[in-house]
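Quiz preparation item.
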């Protein structure tokens, strides 16, 4: 037997609640219905699939439009097929790597666009034998792809998810959706990375957009899409959160409407006005609409980094006058957003916190547009030298601050304009507006005892929501439950006071809705008041029209009259007319510009004709104008760079040409022409210095004359400026008549000097040598001198040679004491040079 006493049996009963109490996470997970788990997963996967489809369609349309715009592609002659029939067999089947590469491009490109839409960066790296290696990345959010992902995730969530979730269960399902979105985006991006076939000496790593940015971005996007599918579940009893989400909904409607409208306009413009834009629109339509929206809110777009100075453009400079039409749209939509925000709140009573909440909401909206409308790029190349850089292009970082200011303007409209205007729009208009933007949980007073059928509203008054007569007015939207009001039923004219939901009891708040239960019907307007209102609206509208029209006119004038284009046109016209003085007044040209003279330009033939100023692009204070003209029956082109030097009266820009329509002329000459004058059209433009003369010159054909000295001259040559080759002329020194005469005289004197001598050695430089058997002095007699020819080189070397030999006679005594006489011929080959203006032996 055991020494332990038997354990009494435990009676059956319910399980202990202690384990459950110690597992709050398990209880939270078990509280989520299975339908909501499915909704979270389906919303994440469905959003990714929708984004993938939109990305694939965008890529297909991009390729199709680009192919259509490039024109027909020649397929070659049929004779190339050979004589033995079709050459399909000779072409051979593509290798497996090429097939796999093509498949990865077709299937992987849309997946990488989805990763880019989730804030990823498309990066790749590789190396080329003997050249080095490099890597680069591009980050840009395809707005259409992101919109498809978010919209379908929200729609699926709203249709599948149950409505019994509390806030903790809602957060859990949103996190699950974010995790699923991250997993699908990351795995698809890695598996469907774009791979290239192997090539000898070239190695390219798989290209994909997966990284820290895409992982965090996909999680945030998936979570917020499910979390904000029904934002009312996040409100609870906090009216401040409800008001902030309501303002966010109004901002979303305003920006969404603007983006859709601008996208449609861009499509029409691309199809009708600028077909060349069509290739970029399928992928960048949303991004372009975002950039235009930022400009309309008086923000900016620009570039920074990549080794160049950043430049910004706005409606005030660089963006074009037509962008003021977008500003007009923003003004109208902001006014409507202010009224919609007031309808959403439906309460004349405002809190000080709204002055902060509304600008913050529009600031957040500006941040979203900044992220969506900005692309970043970076690269690094290592080879013989390391090169790298990074930069961005898109919406400027200060644009969200401007959005915050617009939020303040919208709050002003909601506070001060809406209370006057909304009661007179009618309950039907306000009801339809409330159905679009929703309704905040405003203060809901308990109705005081009233007769079953109230008095009908006065003529012209707006119908009142919440009137007991269901046939007389539309039903009021259900208001959240609230504590009892503190109004006195015996005094119907007393403002109804109720307590804010969640506020401490005993702190009444006077609720004064525009429409609905407790909203007083507006009193009929007198004829004078109506007249004042109509005149005020007309005057206000006229002011807006005048301001916008003035802004548009100013923008157009700044582009067409005071912009860089007209300055460039006047500049080139002056060159074509030979007016270099006017061209000089429109430009800022530094040294080496002596040929930019009116006398020189007017002497030029073949100046530009049929001048046309093409596209003018502006970046900050710098403008680039493309110019085409005809010269020598050929079409020429060039580019003019202009700088904004000032602005008069805040709108009139002053532009000056800093890189003119010129070529650099180079004239070279030999050293003997050093210091010679260079003359064009009778005007001296410079001298030969260090063997050359350089200057800027306008397009044309110039007769260039280079002077010289007593013995050498440069002559005249034609110099053509504006052709495809660089203008260059080389002047070879030509001897003058004086040089020939003096050189011949120099040789004649040399012959005479040698004839007067009685003893000639090899070092005397004489053209003949004495007899070899002479014993003593020799007498020379020049019987005839040779015919001479003078030649010179560009280096200043003068050669005098004989074309017919001369004859010299000898009289001498030989070694045997016998007198001898003889005769011989001689020739001349003498080298001379000019030194200090005189001819001297060269060697």
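Solution:
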């Amino acid at each position: 037997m055991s020494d332990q006493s038997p354990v009494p049996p435990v009676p059956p009963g319910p399980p202990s609640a202690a384990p459950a109490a110690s597992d709050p996470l398990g209880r939270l997970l078990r509280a989520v219905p299975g339908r909501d788990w499915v909704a979270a997963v389906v919303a994440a996967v469905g959003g990714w699939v929708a984004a993938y489809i939109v990305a694939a369609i965008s890529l297909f349309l991009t390729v199709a439009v680009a192919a259509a715009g490039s024109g027909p592609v020649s397929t070659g002659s049929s004779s190339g097929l050979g004589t033995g029939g079709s050459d399909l067999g000779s072409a051979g089947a593509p290798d497996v790597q090429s097939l796999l590469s093509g498949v990865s491009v077709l299937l992987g490109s849309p997946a990488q666009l989805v990763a880019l839409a989730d804030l990823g960066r498309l990066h790749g790296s590789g190396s080329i034998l003997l050249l080095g290696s490099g890597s680069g990345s591009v980050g840009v959010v395809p707005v259409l792809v992101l919109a498809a992902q978010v919209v379908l995730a929200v729609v699926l969530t709203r249709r599948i998810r149950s409505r019994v979730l509390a806030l903790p269960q809602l957060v859990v399902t949103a996190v699950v959706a974010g995790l699923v979105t991250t997993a699908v985006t990351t795995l698809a991006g890695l598996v469907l990375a774009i791979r290239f076939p192997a090539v000898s000496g070239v190695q390219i790593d798989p290209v994909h957009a997966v990284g820290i940015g895409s992982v965090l971005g996909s999680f945030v996007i998936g979570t917020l899409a499910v979390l904000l599918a029904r934002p009312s579940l996040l409100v609870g009893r906090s009216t401040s959160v409800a008001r902030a989400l309501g303002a966010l909904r109004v901002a979303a409607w305003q920006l969404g409407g603007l983006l859709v409208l601008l996208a449609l306009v861009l499509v029409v413009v691309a199809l009708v006005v600028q077909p060349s834009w069509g290739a970029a629109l399928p992928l960048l339509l949303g991004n372009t609409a975002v950039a235009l929206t930022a400009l309309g809110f008086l923000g900016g777009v620009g570039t920074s980094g990549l080794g160049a100075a950043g430049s910004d453009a706005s409606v005030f400079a660089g963006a074009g006058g037509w962008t003021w039409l977008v500003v007009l749209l923003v003004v109208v939509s902001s006014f409507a957003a202010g009224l919609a925000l007031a309808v959403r709140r439906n309460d004349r009573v405002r809190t000080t916190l709204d002055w902060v909440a509304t600008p913050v909401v529009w600031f957040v909206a500006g941040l979203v547009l900044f992220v969506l409308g900005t692309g970043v790029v970076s690269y690094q190349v290592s080879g013989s030298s390391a090169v790298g850089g990074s930069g961005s292009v898109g919406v400027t970082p200060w644009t969200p601050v401007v959005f915050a200011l617009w939020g303040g303007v919208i709050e002003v409209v909601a506070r001060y304009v809406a209370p006057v205007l909304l009661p007179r729009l009618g309950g039907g208009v306000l009801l339809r507006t409330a159905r679009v933007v929703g309704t905040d949980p405003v203060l809901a007073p308990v109705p005081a005892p009233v007769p079953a059928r109230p008095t009908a509203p006065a003529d012209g008054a707006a119908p009142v929501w919440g009137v007991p007569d269901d046939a007389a007015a539309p039903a009021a939207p259900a208001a959240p439950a609230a504590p009892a009001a503190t109004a006195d039923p015996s005094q119907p004219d007393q403002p109804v006071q109720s307590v804010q939901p969640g506020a401490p009891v005993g702190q009444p708040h006077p609720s004064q809705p525009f429409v609905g239960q407790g909203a007083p019907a507006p009193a009929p307007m007198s004829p004078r008041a109506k007249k004042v209102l109509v005149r005020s609206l007309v005057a206000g509208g006229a002011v807006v029209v005048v301001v916008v029209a003035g802004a548009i006119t100013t923008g157009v004038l700044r582009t067409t009259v005071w912009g860089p284009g007209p300055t460039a046109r006047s500049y080139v016209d002056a060159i074509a007319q030979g007016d270099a003085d006017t061209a000089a007044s429109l430009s800022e040209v530094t040294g080496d510009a002596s040929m930019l003279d009116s006398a020189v330009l007017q002497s030029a033939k073949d100046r530009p004709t049929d001048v046309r100023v093409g596209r003018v692009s502006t970046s900050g204070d710098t403008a680039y104008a493309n110019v085409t003209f005809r010269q020598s029956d050929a079409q020429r082109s060039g580019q003019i760079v202009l700088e904004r030097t000032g602005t008069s009266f805040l709108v009139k820009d002053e532009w000056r040409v800093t890189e003119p329509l010129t070529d650099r002329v180079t004239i070279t000459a030999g050293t003997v022409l050093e210091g010679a004058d260079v003359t064009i059209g009778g005007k001296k433009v410079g001298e030969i210095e260090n063997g050359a003369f350089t200057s800027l010159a306008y397009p044309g054909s110039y007769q260039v004359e280079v002077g010289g000295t007593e013995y050498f001259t440069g002559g005249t040559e034609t110099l053509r400026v504006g052709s495809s080759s660089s203008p260059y002329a080389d002047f070879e020194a030509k001897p003058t008549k004086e040089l020939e005469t003096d050189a011949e005289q120099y040789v004649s004197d040399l012959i005479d000097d040698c004839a007067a001598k009685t003893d000639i050695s090899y070092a005397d430089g004489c053209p003949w040598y004495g007899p070899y058997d002479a014993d003593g002095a020799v007498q020379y007699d020049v019987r005839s001198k040779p015919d001479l020819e003078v030649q010179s080189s560009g280096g200043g070397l003068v050669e005098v040679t004989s074309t017919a030999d001369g004859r010299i006679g000898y009289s001498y005594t030989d070694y045997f004491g016998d007198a001898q006489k003889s005769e011989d011929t001689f020739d001349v080959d003498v080298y001379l040079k000019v030194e200090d203006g005189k001819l001297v032996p060269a060697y």
